[in-house]
Amino acid sequence: MLSVADAAGAQSVSQAEISRRDQLIAEQEALLNVYRCRFDIDTQLVPGGCINGAPAEPAKEAKPFTGTPTANALAQRDWLVASQENLLNAYRCRFNIDTAIVPGGCGDEQPGPTPSQPPRPTPPPVGEELSPAEVYALVSPSIALVETSSKLGSGILIEGGYIVTNNHVVWPYDEAWLVFPDGTEIRDVPVIGRDFMADLAVLGPVDVPYQPLTFSDRDDLPLGTDLFLVGYPSEPELFPQPTITQGILSRLREWATYDLTLLQSDAAIAGGQSGGALVNSRGVVVGISTWRFSEAGFALATSAADDALIVQRLIASYEPPEEKTERRGPRTVGEFEHRVTGTSEIDTPAFTFNAAAGTKVTIQVTGKSDGYIVVSDSTRTIASQDSTKVGAEQTTFEVRRSGTHFVSIGSSSDGEFEFELTSSIRLRPYTDEFDGTTLLEEGNVETFYGHFDYLFDTDWFKVSLEEDETIEINTDSILADTTITVRNRETGESVKSENINPRTGLGFAINAQLRFTAPEAGDYAIYVQERSGARGRGYAVTVERVLE
Q1: Which pLDDT score is estimated for 26?
Q2: Cα 46 vs. chain centroid, distance in angstroms?
Q3: Across-strand partners of 152?
Q4: Cα separation of 300 and 340, whole Å?
Q5: Nearest to 68 by CA among 131, 129, 137, 14
Q6: How far apart are the first and last CA of the chain?
Q7: Is residue 58 very low, low, confident or very high in pLDDT (cuts 50, 70, 90)?
Q8: SS in 3 state form for 36-88?
Q9: β-strands 494-496, 445-452 pairing
Q10: Which of 107, 369, 418, 469 is most buried, judged by most C-beta within 10 A?
């Protein structure tokens, strides 16, 4: 199990010490809000918002402390005071204000070396629980904002300096930018492993002073257990802060296809909280926020107990790239012209390009078939063109976000197509390493785990069948709505699925089923598609020989 520090003692301290910390916390928060409004940063955190560059509401006074003061309560406040001071110093250096009071001074708009921060509050002894504020103080420093050029999400710091997030947060990038709540920024953090089915990715390692979080080794929580979701639900600002929402464990679901337990909670989840920590009242991670479903936006998290095993496998299997001292050969940058061939509703050839925001691009296809062009980044469609029945299709667009883009070429005409593709920017053919995988080479049943890489991606597999031999094909996914097509690779004849897979138990996606009997011996291709063209979603396809 991924561990954290042992529990702290609970010996008594004076109430005056607690009160002094609370007063300092209130004063620091008031100053932070002044900075936020003056420099238009993190303004969503200011109560009542900002008016004319100043907080709209007066600063709040510290509330009198009630209860029994303990060493752990004092440690929580000392840690928060130091965290606020670190953030204040980051603001001071970035905007050149009050820099004289920054310990170590400022360099490159960042604070210099500062005294070590007090120990973080630790989980309470067994049987004791934390308040929501204490949960937040314990967990939030180890929750990083994970950002690429087109997407953002949340990440959890674990032992070894690794960050765990959702794969869809970082796909298709190999690196990401991390920002911690105290303003620490780390760029170009490598993605060292991915699991498409559980939607997990591991980044790092990074050298940071924050305490790694604990992953629970159990997923048999009682229904009704109080849970807290800590992550980043809004667009990032200069120095983002995570938020906390509270709910209960509504239901446990079992996804037998991937042997994965899912925790359903009514804790509110929004875009950006993917990869956030679903924790219990002791601050232990019980799940990783992965999906949301229904109009209410309920959180669906993968079990931390299952995630820990996957994460350990990904870390153990990672092989760092070897350092190369020899001169590199010329890098493949793509071509301006391509010949494109495929089959309608089956083959969707794709290309990629990298471009900076603001780049204007023109792409054209010409041919005898009814062609179409779809251009997307890692999150959305940015151009689509299908206005003519035959001849040329052309689209001109401006890149919205810097980074990797996909270009899908297809045809609305029946049968095979051939186009001449020209572009004002160099395009590289995109090759899916799993396309063409042969199934059922041994045995009578095989399951393959796939992933839709880009908009309207089609994955295909080979299978050899005898005359009158029957196979049954089933797909299963949590979010991908799939279809199945079987095509004779010699004659081109195809059969498409119409039935829904009755073996699916979760009910969040439309999964497909197709029973196919080969009219003649030969090689056949099995195509799996996403009905709506969505990308970044994993699925399982199972092929089984039907033995009469």
Answers
A1: 87
A2: 28
A3: 147
A4: 41
A5: 14
A6: 47
A7: confident
A8: HHHHCCCHHHCCCCEECCEECCCCCCCCCCCCCCEHHHHHHHHHHHHHHHHHH
A9: unpaired
A10: 369
**In this structure, are residues 472 and 512 in contact, taking their beta carbons and an 8 Å threshold?**
no
**Residue closest to 347 by CA, chosen among 475, 426, 435:** 435
Higher pLDDT pick, 59 / 121: 59
Q: How far apart, in Å, are the Cα atoms of 459 and each of 33, 166, 529?
A: 51, 22, 7
Using the predicted structure, report yes or no on whether residue 325 has a pLDDT greater than 70.
no
Q: Is the pLDDT of residue 443 over 70?
A: yes
pLDDT band, very low/low/confident/very high, at 113 (cuts 50, 70, 90): low
Provide the 10 A C-beta neighbour count for residue 31. 15
Averaged pLDDT, 192-204: 93
Neighbours of 389 (CB within 10 A): 10
**Average pLDDT of the chain to the nearest whole number:** 83
pLDDT of amino acid 116: 56
Q: Which long-range contacts (CB under 8 A, 24 or more apart) does 317-324 make?
A: 317/193, 318/192, 318/193, 318/202
The span from the CA of 529 to the CA of 18, in Å, is 60
- Cβ atoms of 86 and 182 closer than 8 Å: yes
Contacts of 177 (CB under 8 A, 6+ apart): 146, 147, 148, 185, 186, 187, 188, 189
